[in-house]
Task: structure prediction
Amino acid sequence: MSEHNHGPRQSAFGGTGFGSGASGGPAQGSAGSQPSAGGTSNPFGRQQSAFQGAQSASGPASQSSAPQATPPQVPPPKLDPPKRRANPAMIGLTGLGVALLVVCVFVVHGLITAPDLPVGVPLPPSTTQPQTPKPTPTPKPKPSLDPTQPFTPPEVKTERVKPDVDGPYGDYPNASDNPVYDQKVGSWKCSGIGQAEAPQGDAIKKWVKEAMACMMKRYGPVVKAAGETLSEPKIIYHSGSIDTPCGRNSDTVPFYCSGDEAIYMNPDVVRKYSATGTRFAALHLIFHEFAHHVQWRLGIFDGRVADVEDDMQASRRLELQAECFTFLQIGQLTDPAWGSSDVNQFKQWFSVDQNEAHGKSASYLYWFNRAIGKGDFGLCNTWTAPKKRVA
Result:
């Protein structure tokens, strides 16, 4: 993704307490009643005189005046509370509530802990490829996944389309009728980078520097032939958000700022692309930002600030053209070698829609198929393309 004078655009980065208690049986009081002459009843329902008579028959009469022993008390039996039959409806509602709670917890946890993902650039596909369907009785041979397998560019029309002077960008020839559209290039090498994947550690800075040197050699003659000069953009490494002349970089993707002609990048973010299974993904990011620098040097940014179309429509024309320039370069690489398996990886990468400022999957695939392996800059004039191609 690249953002410019208008700043970055973004669509990237308790327990429950339980109370407890026990209920006991009713409290039992002592019942040692004093004898009475009238033979009143004690708590056990027997006459006091009868109790005394039983004692005098078994012992001396002198013991009849001793205190009467309190008979042992027997507590009433404890009864278990009646068991309630489970209500099927309540069980179902409770289970549904628990399931929804679990889902909500996982969703919230995912939103909080989700890694920073790049904004405005297609996310690379997962390293786990979808399972292929079972072959038909007469299966076709599978293509080789060797990245060095020769790649044959698709046939596309290469004639240049002159802009309509009455079109939205007819008064902005730097965008719609730039001399760069007359330029063509052939196959090339960028062997200094050694590999298409971004390396680990500080080696990534050397890798980026080599990639920039390759792009300067590749674009220098093209820009000169178009009547302009190409300066090398600055590379500013950072970690975390950073303020730039073009606004605040949210640290989700490399970022070109025309205000100081610099590319801002976090090496860790670039390396994320190399870890996803798309071999040229990280190199694509570097080439894309350099393409924005080329657009700036050629005056193509005039279309971005022309204010003749919806702002998002103009942004998509600029972004998709930078992608088209990038496809021209990557598709003609012979070292590191671009192959047919890389085409399939990129098509999978571009199979998802992007944000409004960058375009839909169909638009990415259109410009990819139009430019890949072709060295004709005239194929990348997004400023004269119909709106359906820059949707």
In short: Residues 173-390 form one domain.
